[in-house]
TrEMBL record:
Family, similarity comment: Belongs to the ACBP family.
Single GO MF annotation: fatty-acyl-CoA binding
ACB domain mapped to chain residues: 1-84
Cytoplasm as UniProt keyword: no
Entry protein name: ACB domain-containing protein
GO biological process, one term: lipid storage
Keyword terms: Lipid-binding
InterPro entries, per database record: Acyl-CoA-binding_prot_CS, Acyl-CoA-binding_protein, Acyl-CoA-binding_sf, FERM/acyl-CoA-bd_prot_sf
Role noted for this protein: Binds medium- and long-chain acyl-CoA esters with very high affinity and may function as an intracellular carrier of acyl-CoA esters.
């Protein structure tokens, strides 16, 4: 499965993944497409933004190719867990 196919497939899960799984998907997607996080940290009141920023920042140093491989593996596990619509 390609990275693009995985990104398309994850949108068709029967059930929405947990918040932790969504953060992992977001972090790996951003790391795979953009690389290391170089954006300013969101303000204290932006809880969702801070969670996403922290998840992505936690992948710092992971190569884009490695992040894409991890993303594909995570999508495959989510498809097995939740099925496709």
């Amino acid at each position: 499965m390609s990275f693009e196919a995985a990104a398309a497939q994850v949108k068709n899960l029967k059930t929405s993944p947990s918040n932790d799984e969504l953060l992992q998907l977001y972090a790996l997607f951003k790391q795979g497409t953009v690389g290391d996080n170089n954006t300013p940290k969101p303000g204290m009141l932006d809880l969702k933004g801070k969670a996403k920023w922290s998840a992505w920042d936690g992948k710092k140093g992971t190569s884009q190719d490695q992040a894409k491989e991890e993303y594909i593996a995570l999508v495959k596990s989510l498809v097995e867990k939740y099925g496709l619509a």
